[in-house]
Records
---
Amino acid sequence: MKNKHSNTDYGIEITSVGSFIEKIKELKDEDAGTSTEIYFRGQEVEFWGIEPSIFRNDMLSVEHKLMQIPLQKNPFDFKDLSDSFDIMTKYQHYGMCTRLLDLTTNPLVALYFACKPHGKIKYQDEEKEPGGVVYFAKYYPTQANDINVRIVTSLAKYDLSRENSIKEVLDKLVNEKVISNDNRKRWLDKINIKEFVDIIQHNYLVIPTYSNERLKKQSGVLLLVSSFNVENNDIGGKEIITKAKKDLRSEFEDNYFYILGENKEHIIKELDLLGINEATLFPELEHQLNYIKFIHQDQTQFVTDFHQYEENYKKIISYENVNEEILNKEFINEIEKFLSTCLDKNVCESILEIVKNNLVVDWYKREVMRSRLRRNISTYCLSNKKLLNGNNPEFLVGRIMYIMNELIKKHMISNKEGE
């Protein structure tokens, strides 16, 4: 059998929204007639495990504190919530570590999260944007008030490093009116204890009450992860329950969809045309503003650097005797000397051609000419980053402008001294 964690055995590459929709249609057709639903999860880094936030950085060891302290510190924020699952859902919304895993019924939402830019990561000898992944799973949905869901969310609040025998846990559940006394008696019977163990070792796909706009906009559902170890040392209610973590890859289908890092931006723009973007998925003002910034970043134009205005500048320095032919030749020579130390010959020649095309009469006195020169060089460098031998485009442009300004100063001073 092929390795379930391999990135090549079962993966289906997605290069566009259209190709993804076609694959999802095939998936839905295959699943037609079954009673399960298909749920999706997108992750922006291909090699991340699938786990709820409480399983990371050993936060599971303090889960009971994280579940209780916010209720004590900010009781009014939770006064309308009496159900433990709804409270945990609110924690999840505001970034608290929980044992909830975000999924969605909308595959395009999952694709958006898989295509979010992460930032370059080193792969062997190169740095590049990591690929994203869309996983999917089939579940029977469970209601938030289901007794099994209530049991698991209650166990999340307990400190199972103490008072953690099955009898002690069942006693707590009865006292909190999560289960009945009849349930307690049944599950303490050694014949039926396995029934309780199955409940706390099973995960639950829960359709939440859409009490916040984000869940609604993302077609969000939540996987309640219930991974509790039971040490079967002694039959008769003295088995010990402890909290445990695990990677949930096995909960999802073997097949999955992957997106190469270089295709993320293209797909994000396609999703934007379909109304899937940061503004539609995240109603909070912070995300609305980020989206506005994102959609305008391609419309930017070059802005000149600030220069202090000097009212008597022209009176101080005379330009009449500056030899522009000499200035231009010296400028091109200096630029060529600099570029040849860090760029290939063809790239060097291309930038020099841009410089020559922008040298006009009195170019050094016209700020608009400086701006045009800088803009055209910047555009070339940004469009040909791969040809720059790792040099920062801003550094190259800045250095060229520095050389130009220094030569202008030199010729101005020489001219003034010759008066």
---
Amino acid sequence: MLRIRLKRTGKSNSASYRVVVAERSAHPQSEGKENLGHYNPTTDPKQIDLKKERIEYWLNEGAQPSNTVHNLLIEEGIIEGDKRKAVAVGDEEN
């Protein structure tokens, strides 16, 4: 199954991310099939540069976004819906 997810780049204390399409089982630092943009949360304001047409193509091909990417796509207006909880801490689901 294909997944649209973040790939970490940047320096130790200054992370930035690439938005890539990759197999779900692939290593997190693998190159992936295609680079769909980048996201830099350390700047003020946050920098988000996404290839909207290519993201829509991959979504139509069946790729599923990770929770964080799903929330970014909602913020950018590429998809509609409710945001997902990106990080689960402890036993909050119980």
